[in-house]
Design a protein that fits this description.
It is a single chain. By secondary structure, the protein is of the alpha+beta class. It has one domain: Alpha-Beta Plaits, CATH 3.30.70. Helices cover 29% and strands 36% of the residues. α2 packs across α3 and α4 packs antiparallel against α6. The protein is globular, with a radius of gyration of 17 Å. The two termini are 33 Å apart. The mean pLDDT is 91.
């Protein structure tokens, strides 16, 4: 990941990017999985991404080193907040997911140091609720730093499944209320996406393809 950064910084058409470590077993806990990592990127257009995949040494290195890889192209479908002081989706028109269409969700937060203990005490209950959530196809906890710069990426059967999880009484709703009331985050970003073309496998299969 460290060697990829200078190349990514000079990649034409790459508007915004973050390399992210992941948590063990797809959770948001402090247990890191040193074998799995992710890249989130916003591209100028599909052509810029196609050129990167075809000719950059970065994805070539991923293919060489990776036992398993999975990628998905996402259309921005609305959100709010900032990431490292920027709006990664500035100027993008928001797509509208159709009923029954899969939806992806990205959340990211910079946690205040004095709130870290409270945040991580809340994680197990939310992880459990997410694992049981009807319609959650896959989820993974990610981070820029080992502790205080956290993100999650999740795939859902449709928007109705997301709303049922987000707004039903339970651990997730309670924690969201506490983050607001107790000012846990110095910065946060939330975005929804419509998944498009996907490739590869995630824990043995493509979660966006039935069967």
């Amino acid at each position: 990941m460290a060697f990829d950064r200078p190349v990514l910084a000079g990649t034409p058409g790459l508007r915004f990017w973050k390399l992210l470590g992941t948590a063990r077993d797809g959770t948001m806990s402090l247990g890191a999985d040193p074998r799995r990592w992710a890249m989130f990127a916003v591209w100028q257009d599909h052509a810029a991404l196609d050129r990167f995949l075809a000719s950059s040494p970065v994805p070539a290195g991923w293919r060489l080193a990776g036992r398993e890889t999975w990628s998905v192209r996402l259309r921005y479908a609305g959100g709010h907040g900032r990431w490292a002081g920027r709006d990664p989706f500035s100027g993008l028109a928001a797509a509208v997911p159709e009923p029954g269409q899969p939806v992806a969700v990205l959340t990211r937060a910079a946690i205040r140091a004095r709130r870290l203990a409270r945040f991580y005490r809340s994680v197990p209950a939310v992880d459990g609720a997410l694992a049981r959530a009807d319609g959650c196809l896959r989820a993974v906890g990610m981070g820029e730093w080992p502790a205080a710069r956290q993100a999650t990426f999740s795939l859902w059967r449709d928007g109705a499944a997301i709303r049922a999880f987000a707004y039903a009484a339970g651990p997730h709703r309670a924690v969201v209320a506490r983050t607001r009331a107790e000012d846990w985050f110095a910065e946060e970003c939330f975005a929804r996406f419509v998944p498009g073309e996907s490739a590869g496998s995630w824990d043995g299969h493509d979660p966006l393809r039935p069967g």
